[in-house]
Design a protein that fits this description.
Elements lengths: L2 E6 L9 E7 L2 E7 L12 H4 L1 H6 L8 E4 L2 E4 L2 H18 L5 E5 L10 H9 L3 E4 L5 H10 L16 E5 L3 H4 L1 H12 L3 E6 L4 H4 L3 E4 L5 H14 L5 H7 E2 L1 H9 L3 H8 L3 H12 L3 E5 L9 H14 L10 E2 L11 H5 L8 E4 L3 H7 L7 E5 L3 H4 L3 H10 L2 E6 L11 E4 L8 E3 L7 E5 L12 H12 L9 H13 L5 H7 L1 E3 L19 E2 L3 H5 L19 H6 L2 E4 L22 E5 H7 L6 E6 L2 E10 L6 E3 L33 E6 L2
Parallel strand pairs: 6-15, 7-14, 8-9, 8-12, 9-10, 11-21, 12-13, 15-16, 16-17, 22-26, 23-25
Antiparallel strand pairs: 1-2, 2-3, 4-5, 4-17, 18-19, 19-20, 22-27, 23-26, 24-25, 24-27
The structure holds ligand MGD (2 copies), iron/sulfur cluster and molybdenum atom.
The site of one ligand MGD has 33 residues, from strand 16.
C-alpha cells in the first residue's frame, strides 16, 4: 500500500521546499510539494520531482570500489574503510594531517552534512577550502557594508512599491520568489529586471534593462549620480547612519553619465528613469549571484548596496538589499557540531584555485584528496587544471551517489545515500527562514551508506570514535541547542515538519549595523583591516575591452555559464530523458556576423580550453554575449569550466566564473 510522508528538499537552492513523498514497498514513487509549507505551499520544481529518479536510478553507486590497474573493482566496506583509515594514519605520521585536502561544495543542505568538518578537525586538521564559487564576493561585500548579509522575509515584498530583480534568474532558480513577484504585481507593484538575458522573469517585468555583463556596479553608480543631481537621495539616512559618503561622492564625480551609459550599454534616459524608480519608495532589490561572479564582483554588490542606502531603502518594510540570508544558518550551533578547537594543524586553499594550490603545495605536498558533496571536475573553474591536480595525488577518495566526472578519477569511491534514505533537517541561508525536517523514508539501495556512517566508521578506526558516538537525535538536538529555550526543539520540528527561525524579518530596522563603525559603510573599515583600501571603485571585469583590449580583440564574446533549468548543477544531466546536447546560446548579432543558424555545430574556445556544441540563436541575449548552461558532463560535451578562469574576485573570496571572454567558430 502506498502512503505519503512529509519531507524536505535537500538541494542547494534558494527555496528550501517542503515535500510530500509517496512511498510504496520501501520505494519512493513520487515527489510532490507540501501544501502546508508556509512559504513553498505545495509547489516544487522539476529538480525536486527528479529526486525520485535520483533515488531510484539504476545508475546509483551501490558498492565501495577501488581502482586497480585502471579499472574499478567492488570491494567490501571493511576493506575500503580499513585501507582509507590506514592511509590517513600513514599520512598523519609521515607528512602531517594537512597533506590531506578536503574538497567539497554544498550539494546537500542537511545540517549533519557539516559533520565532515568534525571528522577532519578531530583527525588533526586538514587543508580546507576558503571562499565560495557561488556567492563569495557578494557575501564579503555585504559584510563590509552592513556587517552581515541579510534578507527581508518573503512576505515583505508586498510592502514594496517598486521591485528590482538585479541579475537573479528568478523563474528558473527561485520559483517561490517568482510567485511572489506575480502576486506583488497584481497588488500594484512595478517590476524592473536588470540582466544581460531577457529571461522568463524579464517577460513579466514592467521594464527590462539589458546590460553588458559585469557592468552593474557602474550602472548603480550612474543611478546614484542621477539621484544626487535631482536631489532624490535620502539625506537623513546618509547623514545619520552611514560612513564614508564623501568618498562615494568623489567617486561619482570621477565618471560622467555618458561614460556610464557607454560602458553599461544602458541608454542615458533609462539611467535617469531608474533614479526615479529608486526614489519612489519603498523599493526592494533582489540581487542574484550571477551578478558577482566577476573580478569586480564584490565592488558590484557594494555599489548596489550603496544605491539602496543612498535612496533610503535600508531597514524599511518593502525595501532591502536582498542578496543572501545568513541569519538562517547563523541560528544553529556549528561549533558544537564541528569542534574547531580540536584541530591542531590547518591550512587553507582558495576554493577557486584549489587545483593550482594542489599542484604547487609543499610542506607538505597534498597526498590525498577526499571529495564530499561536490563534483569539482565539472564545477570548479579551469577544469583541465582541476583534472591535472586531482590526477596528481596519490589517493583520491570520492563519496558520491553517482559515477560523476570526479568519481571517475577516484582511487576509492564510497557510495552514499540520498536525502530520503537518512534523517536530517534542511535549510537554506539564501531566501526564507524556515527549517524543514527530513525523515528517513526508505532503505538505501545496495550498500550505500550515509556520509555520517562513513565518518563514524573512519573515526573508530582512527581512535576518535567517541567523538562520533551519538544517535541522530542527539546530533540534531546538539545543533538546535541555541533555539531550545524558545521552544524550537527537535520534537516540535518532527511534529510540525517545519518551523520559523527567530530571525529579523526586516533587517536593519534599528539602524544598528554590524560594522566597526556601527553604520552602513560606503568606505569599509573591515576592508581596510583586511589590507584593502575599503573604498568603492569603478572597477570593470578582468576580461573586458577596458582592462585587456588585446584579449578582447582575440576573444570578442562574453561567455555566461548560468545555472541549468532542469538540473541542480551537474546533478541531473545523466538522468534526463532523451539525448543531452551541449547548447551554445548566442546573441543575434553574433549569429548575424558569423552567419550562424540554429543547430550549427560550433567550437567555443579561449586560451584555457574549448567545448563544442550546437547553436541556438537567442534574440534575448545582450549583444556579443554567449551562454552555455553550467554543469554538463564530459560525455555530453562539457564541462564548460574548460573555459572559465580560476581567478578570484576583488575581495578574494568569490569566483570569476562569468568574467570570461571566448571566441566561436563553426566546425563540421
Ligand atoms: N534550476 C536551477 N536552480 C538553481 C540552481 C541550479 O543549478 N538550477 N542552483 C542553485 C544555486 S547553487 C544558486 S547559487 C542559485 C543561483 O541563482 P541565480 O543567481 O538566479 O542564477 P545564476 O545562474 O547563478 O545567475 C544567473 C543570472 O545572472 C545573470 N547575470 C549574469 N551576469 C550578469 C551581470 O553581469 N549582470 C546582471 N545584471 N546579471 C547577470 C544571468 O543572466 C542570469 O539571469 O540558483 C539555485 N537554483
Ligand atoms: N561555470 C560555472 N560553474 C559553476 C557555477 C556556474 O554558475 N557556472 N555555479 C557555481 C555554484 S553557484 C555552485 S553552488 C557550485 C556547485 O558545485 P557542486 O556542489 O560541486 O555541484 P553539483 O553538481 O551539485 O555536485 C554535487 C555532487 O555532490 C553529490 N551529492 C549530493 N548529495 C550528496 C550527499 O549527501 N553526500 C555526498 N557525499 N555527495 C552528495 C552529487 O551527486 C553531485 O555529484 O558550482 C559552481 N560552478
Ligand atoms: S530544487 Fe529548489 S525549488 Fe526545486 S524543489 Fe528543491 S528547494 Fe524547491
Ligand atoms: Mo550556488
Amino acid at each position: 500500500m502506498a502512503y505519503v510522508k512529509k519531507a524536505a528538499c535537500p538541494l542547494n537552492c534558494w527555496d528550501s521546499c517542503g515535500l510530500m513523498v509517496t512511498i510504496e514497498n520501501d520505494r519512493v514513487i513520487k515527489v510532490e510539494g507540501d501544501p502546508d509549507h508556509p512559504i513553498t505551499k505545495g509547489k516544487i520544481c522539476g529538480r525536486g520531482r527528479m529526486l525520485e529518479k535520483r533515488t531510484n536510478s539504476k545508475l546509483r553507486l551501490l558498492h565501495p570500489m577501488k581502482k586497480i590497474n585502471g579499472t574499478f573493482k567492488e570491494i567490501s566496506w571493511e576493506q575500503a574503510l580499513d585501507e582509507i583509515a590506514d592511509r590517513l594514519k600513514e599520512i598523519k605520521e609521515c607528512y602531517g594531517t594537512t597533506a590531506v585536502l578536503h574538497s567539497h561544495d554544498y550539494a546537500n543542505n542537511g545540517i549533519l552534512k557539516n559533520l565532515d568538518q568534525r571528522f577532519f578537525n578531530c583527525y588533526g586538521g586538514v587543508t580546507e577550502l576558503y571562499g565560495s564559487l557561488c556567492w563569495g564576493s557578494g557575501i564579503e561585500a555585504q559584510k563590509w557594508d552592513f556587517g552581515n548579509a541579510l534578507s527581508h522575509e518573503p512576505e515583505d515584498i508586498f510592502n514594496s512599491k517598486n521591485i528590482v530583480v538585479w541579475g537573479r534568474n528568478v523563474a528558473r532558480t527561485n520559483m517561490h520568489l517568482y510567485e511572489k513577484l506575480l502576486e506583488a504585481k497584481k497588488r500594484g507593484a512595478k517590476l524592473f529586471v536588470i540582466d544581460p538575458i531577457y529571461h522568463a522573469t524579464a517577460k513579466i517585468a514592467d521594464q527590462f534593462i539589458s546590460i553588458k555583463p559585469g557592468m552593474d556596479g557602474i550602472l548603480a553608480a550612474g543611478i546614484m549620480k542621477e539621484m544626487l543631481r535631482l536631489g532624490l537621495e535620502d539625506r537623513t539616512f546618509i547623514e545619520q547612519y552611514t560612513y564614508g559618503f564623501q568618498d562615494l561622492l568623489k567617486l561619482l564625480h570621477s565618471i560622467s553619465l555618458e561614460t556610464v551609459s557607454e560602458m553599461t550599454e544602458v541608454p542615458l534616459e533609462v539611467i535617469t528613469q531608474l533614479a526615479g524608480v529608486y526614489a519612489d519608495k519603498p523599493v526592494s532589490t533582489y540581487m542574484g549571484l550571477g551578478l558577482q561572479r566577476y573580478k569586480n564582483g564584490g565592488n558590484t554588490i557594494r555599489l548596489i548596496d550603496a544605491l539602496v542606502a543612498v535612496s533610503g531603502n535600508i531597514g524599511v518594510p518593502g525595501g532591502g538589499a536582498n542578496y543572501a540570508n545568513l541569519q538562517v544558518g547563523q541560528s544553529f550551533a556549528y561549533d558544537q557540531l564541528t569542534l574547531p578547537e580540536r584541530r591542531q594543524n590547518h591550512r587553507l586553499f582558495s576554493i577557486m584555485k584549489q587545483a593550482e594550490e594542489v599542484l604547487s603545495a609543499r610542506d607538505p605536498e597534498i597526498k590525498m584528496i577526499m571529495v564530499t558533496c561536490g563534483n569539482p571536475i565539472t564545477q570548479v573553474p579551469d577544469s583541465r587544471m582541476v583534472k591535472k591536480a586531482f590526477k596528481s595525488v596519490e589517493t583520491l577518495v570520492v563519496m558520491d551517489q553517482y559515477m560523476t566526472d570526479t568519481a571517475k578519477l577516484a582511487d576509492y569511491i564510497l557510495p552514499v545515500t540520498t536525502a530520503f534514505e537518512e534523517e536530517d533537517f534542511y535549510f537554506s541561508s539564501m531566501y526564507h527562514h524556515y527549517v524543514n525536517y527530513g525523515p528517513k523514508l526508505v532503505s538505501a539501495p545496495g550498500e550505500a551508506k550515509p556520509d555520517l556512517w562513513i565518518w563514524t566508521q573512519l573515526a573508530n578506526r582512527l581512535g576518535f570514535g567517541k567523538d562520533f558516538d551519538f544517535s541522530r537525535d542527539e546530533w540534531l538536538k546538539m545543533t538546535l541547542k541555541p533555539l531550545e529555550q524558545m521552544g524550537l526543539t527537535l520534537e516540535k520540528l518532527k511534529q510540525k515538519h517545519t518551523f520559523e527561525l527567530p530571525v529579523s524579518k526586516v533587517p536593519w530596522q534599528d539602524r544598528k549595523f554590524q560594522t566597526p563603525t556601527g553604520k552602513f559603510e560606503f568606505t569599509s573599515i573591515l576592508g581596510q583591516q583586511k589590507g584593502k583600501t575599503g573604498l568603492l571603485t569603478l572597477a570593470v571585469p578582468d576580461e573586458s575591452k577596458w582592462s585587456n583590449p588585446s584579449l578582447a580583440e582575440q576573444y570578442p564574446y562574453n561567455l555566461l555559464t548560468i545555472h541549468p533549468m532542469r538540473s541542480n548543477h551537474s546533478q541531473n544531466y545523466h538522468l534526463l530523458n532523451g539525448h543531452v546536447k551541449l547548447k551554445v546560446e548566442v546573441a543575434e548579432n553574433i549569429a548575424q556576423n558569423l552567419g550562424l543558424q540554429n543547430g550549427d555545430y560550433v567550437r567555443v574556445w579561449n586560451d584555457r580550453g574549448e567545448v563544442k556544441g550546437y547553436v541556438s540563436v537567442l534574440g534575448t541575449l545582450h549583444p556579443d554575449t554567449i551562454n552555455i548552461d553550467e554543469g554538463i558532463w564530459e560525455e555530453f560535451g562539457g564541462p564548460v569550466n574548460n573555459l572559465t578562469s580560476s581567478r578570484e574576485s576583488d575581495n578574494g573570496l568569490g569566483s570569476t566564473l562569468y568574467d570570461c571572454l571566448v571566441n566561436l567558430e563553426k566546425v563540421n
